[in-house]
Specification:
Helices cover 18% and strands 40% of the residues. It is α+β, with helices and mostly antiparallel strands. It has a single domain (58-244), classed as Immunoglobulin-like (Sandwich), CATH 2.60.40. Strands 2, 5, 8, 9, 10, 12, 13, 14 and 16 form a nine-stranded mixed beta sheet that branches. Strands 1, 3, 4, 6, 7, 11 and 15 form a seven-stranded mixed beta sheet that branches. The two termini are 39 Å apart.
Length: 245
């Protein structure tokens, strides 16, 4: 089953992986990684049968970006996405059986797109990358990144706040302007899907559930012209590369 087939299913992904692996970890540990990942993808299609009893509390996810405020035209720069999960306005104390588990979303670059050259797939972040996303113009679409206890070869980061994904944006040569970076929803959903595993109540807290909020802050990066000598060198290097082709 491909990930595109999982978009419209409730996304109780990683805990179902955890629970299955607790009883099958020896078997899975002897199998090739590709087969294990295929099993993980199948486990994503598990429905949510009942709302969490903890929903009477105020649940809020908060997402924001970390990147340089200013970059030189022609450069590439890293962008990290951070998240935190709060209960009644206080960051939840992440620990075993109680941690950030998954994000399913897209990234959009807006603003002065003449200063934009390209965006990469997800390059770093949480260990389990079921889909690093597909670059499409100023979009990085449909990445599915997470973590889960009991997965052989993977470690859970119990941070809250937590850096969850990193990608790179490359700027165009000889341009200027301000690029804006946004967290967007993936295909098939109205909002980005962020999930926290609440082992105390044996259930998920997800942004796709009623009563769970998401505050997503965009970030702006100013692109400034490179010094004249740097521009000449960059253009000359580009010409050499094209001649070699």
């Amino acid at each position: 089953m491909g990930l595109s087939n999982l978009v419209d299913t409730p996304r109780k992904l990683l805990h179902d992986i955890d629970r299955t692996l607790r009883t099958q970890v020896k078997t899975l540990g002897d199998e090739p990684m590709g087969h294990r990942v295929a099993q993980l993808a199948v486990l994503a299609a598990v429905p949510i049968l009942a709302p969490s009893p903890a929903q009477a509390q105020e649940h809020m996810f908060h997402a924001w970006f970390e990147a340089p405020e200013t970059v030189t035209a022609g450069e590439s720069f890293q962008v990290w996405l951070w998240v935190t999960y709060e209960v009644d306005g206080v960051a939840a104390p992440a620990r075993p059986e109680y941690y950030f588990a998954e994000i399913f979303g897209s990234i959009q670059v807006g603003g002065a797109l003449q200063a934009f050259e390209s965006i990469s797939p997800v390059l770093d972040g949480l260990d389990l990358r079921l889909d690093s996303g597909t670059p499409n113009g100023p979009w990085l679409r449909d990445f599915l990144i997470g973590q889960g206890e009991g997965l052989p070869g993977f470690e859970v980061d119990y941070g809250n706040p937590l850096r969850i994904i990193m990608f790179e944006i490359t700027t165009a040569v000889s341009t200027r302007g301000v690029l804006d970076v946004y967290l967007r929803s993936p295909s098939g959903l109205d909002i980005p899907s962020l999930a926290w595993w609440d082992g105390d109540n044996n259930d998920w807290i997800m942004t796709t559930q009623p009563g769970v909020g998401l505050i997503s802050e965009p970030m702006s990066v100013r692109v400034i012209p490179a010094p004249a000598g740097v521009v000449v060198f960059a253009l000359a290097s580009l010409g050499v590369a094209r001649r070699r082709r």
